[in-house]
Q: What sequence folds into this?
């Protein structure tokens, strides 16, 4: 398995960093290691497939790292590693946004499966974001009247009703509707509505 965006290992234990880096590299994954959460945050990387971090570290622990990532905006998938005595802390990390936690000592296959799942999640998020950016760019190209017609269509209104609302003829609504379909690159009304709902959901993020 391979991915363009690296897996970032954040752990203050050198032996753990080295063993995990070897394990992931052997599995075909790009890896970057950091000896602390502070070092990872300072690196300012924007290429993150997922993060594997120890939950208990000096200075900034795994939970605080999650909070700081969330403050920066959309966060990548984070897997926390925990000792048996730190399960409560791991649960707190899950509530803060971690996608999984792995108890030490862990089976290599269990960790790799969790990482694969996290990378797939990251891929879906990137695709969604790219699609959302494209939809927003198309929406921005609509005129005010075209936006009004689109809002009517999304609300399930017929051309005649939209025309009455806007004070224009149904025929004029049809013309605007055709323009909206063309500018939004929608092949059907259902696809147009789906695009509008995507844009609406992203505005709420």
A:
């Amino acid at each position: 398995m391979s991915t363009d965006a690296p897996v970032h290992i954040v752990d203050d234990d050198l032996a753990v960093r080295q063993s995990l880096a070897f394990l992931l590299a052997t599995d075909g994954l790009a890896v970057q290691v950091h000896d602390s959460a502070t070092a990872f945050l300072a690196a300012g990387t924007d290429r993150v497939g997922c993060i594997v971090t120890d939950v208990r570290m000096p200075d900034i622990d795994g939970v605080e790292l999650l909070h700081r990532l969330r403050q920066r905006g959309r966060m990548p998938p984070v897997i926390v590693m925990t000792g048996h005595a730190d399960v409560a802390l791991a649960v707190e990390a899950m509530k803060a946004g971690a996608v999984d936690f792995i108890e030490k000592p862990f089976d290599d296959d269990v960790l790799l499966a969790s990482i694969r799942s996290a990378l797939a999640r990251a891929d879906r998020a990137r695709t969604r974001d790219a699609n959302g950016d494209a939809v927003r760019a198309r929406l921005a190209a609509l005129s005010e009247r075209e936006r009004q017609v689109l809002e009517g269509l999304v609300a399930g209104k017929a051309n005649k009703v939209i025309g009455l609302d806007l004070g224009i003829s149904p025929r004029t609504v049809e013309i605007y509707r055709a323009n909206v379909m063309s500018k939004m690159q929608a092949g059907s009304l259902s696809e147009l509505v789906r695009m509008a709902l995507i844009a609406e959901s992203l505005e709420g993020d």
Observations:
- The beta strands are 7-10, 31-34, 50-54, 78-82, 100-103.
